[in-house]
Amino acid sequence: TTNAGVNWYSTFLGLHYNIGDIDSKGSNIFIGAYLLNNNEDTILSAVIFRSTNNGINWSQISSTVMNSAGDPIHGVDVKLGIHFASSDTGYIATVKGVYKTVNGGLNYTILPNGPSTAVGVVGSGQLSNYNMYAAGDPPGKLEIYKSTNGGANWILVSSIPNTTDTKRFTG
Questions:
Q1: How far apart are CA 68 and CA 60, in angstroms?
Q2: Which end of the chain has less Cβ packing within 10 Å, N or C?
């Protein structure tokens, strides 16, 4: 949409990707997308798409979500969370923790001391003192973590029993 949701236009990302999560910063829109196997119980690949013109055109900015060494991040589930603080700095929640990119989604580095398995990540503020929250879902619990410095350090702010198998954390 270009008019606050009055009219909507469709776009095609290619193949038959499922859209897991969407985030935007200005005219930049980021989509975490994934392909499932035939049984639809395993993610075969997770990729990031970006539009720099409000969704008119799209480019796949990663053929698979990679770490800073150029290796695929195993256990990536982009259905869980994607959040960009700027057009270059972004975060993804994965079953292995929270990862950060500083090059627009080309490579990612795992953030220390955060949730070991994440179901979402949200944030706000300036990049120098970026406030973030991430949710983790270890067996039987839901944990909320906070970072006041863009994910460099995390503190556990809440841990509650989780009997509903929470799979989303949005803000």
A1: 18
A2: N
pLDDT digits (tens, 9 = 90+) for 68-99: 555 555 545 555 578 888 888 888 877 777 88
Closest of 159, 41, 150 to residue 101, by C-alpha: 150
Distance between CA atoms of residues 97 and 116, nearest Å = 5
What is the secondary structure of 36-76 as a DSSP string?
E-TTSSSEEEEEEEEESSTTSS-EEEESS-BBTTS-B-TT-
In this structure, what token pair is assigned to residue 114?
């955060």
Least confident of 39-48, 151-160, 162-171: 162-171
Output b/e per residue, 162-171; b: 16+ Cβ within 10 A: beeeeeebee
Instruction: Show Cβ contacts of residue 134 under 8 Å, excluding neighbours closer than 6 positions.
Output: 81, 93, 98, 114, 115, 118, 120, 121, 122, 144, 145, 147, 154, 169
Express each pLDDT in 1-13 by its tens digit. Answer: 778 789 887 776 6
Residue 67 token pair? 């770490």
Structure tokens at 116: 């070991």
